[in-house]
Each structure stands twice: as structure tokens, then as C-alpha cells.
């Protein structure tokens, strides 16, 4: 059973989410009203996922996300926001969030998103996350050769990096490269380690920031 911490400053939102998730077999281990409490709850209960609101008192969701990810905790952060173009969402993704969903997301889609993030995949809804990244990461001019930040990657690791930047899942990458899923996971983990990143979303952001992928460009 997937375990979740809910962090939102609105009592009704927290209680509503708890009811919806519990009815669908998700274990809500804590429900808290601010980012500082969220960090404490994550450290205490070590859930699979924390549903993180952005605008909260004491500590906002961005700072809480950064603290959770920088501490090396295994918990994944799934941001819940009211507006799909909330300018704070991009900062949360850079801080290490594994993706985001709107609070108006249907319950079954929310649960599917939680399971996706818990499994280590990025939640890159093309109509939301990619649009947000493209708006806020205009990026440098197209690069000539390999960006210096990526020079430590092997040819195969770079290939995996580009496919991740295109929003491909591990299964998609395995099929395209004709390798096993475990091999893809190994490559992904090595890429993350070499680049000092924790989530697939951060890899996508880096791809835009280095100019390896440009807004509007399709990677396959």
C-alpha cells in the first residue's frame, strides 16, 4: 500500500483528500497545515509520497520540497496547485519535486499520479508541466557540441538523458533501446548521480537550461 503525507493549509482540502485517498486504498499517514510540519511528518513517517501545496504559512511548499530532497529522503514530492501556470510550480520542480497536478484533478487520476511518482517516474503531463517548463525556461542559444554540464555522461547515458527529457518512461526507453528495464534504471540512476540531481523532472529542466532541448522541440 502506498503511503502519503498531505500538506495543505486548508482544512477542507486536507480532509477531502484524505477521504478520497483512503477510499482508494492509499495510506494517509499524516495530514499537516504547513511546510515545516510537512518536513517533520516526512522525516517521522517516511511516506512514499508527500502531496505538497505551494502557498502555505510558516514554510512554503517550495522550501519544504527543497529541504526534503536535499536531505536525501526517499519520499517523492508531488505538488498540488490550484492553477496550472502558477509561477511557483517551476521553482518547486527545480527544488526536486517529481511532478505536479491540479487540485481539480479527478480522484482516480490523482491516485494514478501518486502511484506513478512513488514508482520513481516523473509526472510530466504535456499540457501542464511541459508548457510550464517551456514558458519559464527560454534557455540559452542552441549549443554547439555537448554542454559542459553533461560532458561526464557516456554516450548511452546521454542517449537515456535525452529520452527522459522527451518525457519517456523507463518502459518506453527500454523498448526503444532494446534493453531490459533494470538496465534502464541503472542508466537513469547513474545519470542522476553524475549530474547531482534527484528526480527525472530536474533532468528535464536541465535539458532545457543547457539548450540540449529547446521549447517546442520534439525528441522522438
- What global shape is seen? globular
Q: What percent strand?
A: 5-15%
Helix proportion = 40-55%
Which class of secondary structure composition applies to the elements?
alpha/beta
**Low-pLDDT residue spans:** none
Look at the structure and name the CATH superfamily of the largest domain: Response regulator
Q: What is the string of SSEs from the N terminus onward?
A: EHEHEHEHEHHHHHH
Main sheet: which strands, in order across? 2-1-3-4-5
Major β-sheet profile: 5 strands, parallel
Tally of individual domains: 2
Total beta strands: 5
Rg from Cα:
17 Å
Highest-level CATH class of the largest domain: Alpha Beta
CATH overall fold name of the largest domain: Rossmann fold
Return the CATH architecture of the largest domain.
Answer: 3-Layer(aba) Sandwich
The number of helical elements comes to: 10
Q: Give the termini distance in whole angstroms.
A: 35 Å
**Overall pLDDT metric:** 83
Secondary structure: elements and pairs:
Elements: E1 3-7, H1 11-23, E2 27-32, H2 35-45, E3 49-52, H3 61-70, E4 76-81, H4 87-94, E5 99-102, H5 107-118, H6 126-136, H7 155-165, H8 170-177, H9 181-195, H10 200-209
Parallel strand pairs: 1-2, 1-3, 3-4, 4-5
Give structural attributes.
alpha/beta, 220 residues, 5-stranded parallel β-sheet, single chain, 50% helix
What do you see in this structure?
By secondary structure, the chain is an alpha/beta fold. The protein folds into two domains: 3-135, Rossmann fold, CATH 3.40.50; 139-209, Winged helix-like DNA-binding domain superfamily/Winged helix DNA-binding domain (Arc Repressor Mutant, subunit A, Orthogonal Bundle). Helix content is 50%, strand content 11%. It has helices at residues 11-23, 35-45, 61-70, 87-94, 107-118, 126-136, 155-165, 170-177, 181-195, 200-209, and strands at residues 3-7, 27-32, 49-52, 76-81, 99-102. Strands 2-1-3-4-5 form a five-stranded parallel β-sheet, sandwiched between helices. Strand 3, helix 3 and strand 4 form a beta-alpha-beta unit. Helix 2 (35-45) packs parallel to helix 3 (61-70) and helix 7 (155-165) crosses helix 10 (200-209). The chain starts with a strand and ends in an 11-residue tail after the last helix. The mean pLDDT is 83.
